[in-house]
Amino acid sequence: DKEVRAIFLRLFAQLFQGYRSCLQLIRIHAEPVIHFHKAAFLGQRGLIENDFLTKVLNGMAFAGFVSERGPPFRTCDLFDELVAFEVERIKAEEGNPPKMIKHVRELAEQLFKNENPNPHIAFQKVPRPTEGSHLRVHILPFPRINECRVQELLQEGLARSQGAPPATRGDKKCVVPAGPPVGMFARL
User: φ and ψ at 172, to 5 degrees?
Assistant: First the structure.
């Protein structure tokens, strides 16, 4: 699972290398708008005639990608690091499958660590129900919920949360690395 995700991560990092150099932040509106120059991106990479990439860039998923990843100050992740710093490594590994596989496994391990920051905590597996378990008649009906008790618990929780400091997320925002400009890349 993680290795397949790592392969797609590398693919999209290669596909969108240099996309940050084609972003423009427009501050005319109260809320800044991020514009992506598709023609400049395709032209600088020599891919103007590439129908696939043109369709990808015109899609709604890419528009969401630009709006989410376009801001210059946000939380960075593994994809940002790949696009900014691993361009040469990915290009060098194109002709060397063992190195490519090693890098995919490293990325898969990082993806796993991102999802499971505390690997020493064991996850409890829920056993599968036995065959025919749904036919058993001795199963007790689900108890009715006491509405008064639910309200009491909600009020207690609200009272506790009002006195507590606001929760903050551990992610730190930083300036997103731009990586090399688009013009450095040859055809895919």
Answer: -105, 130
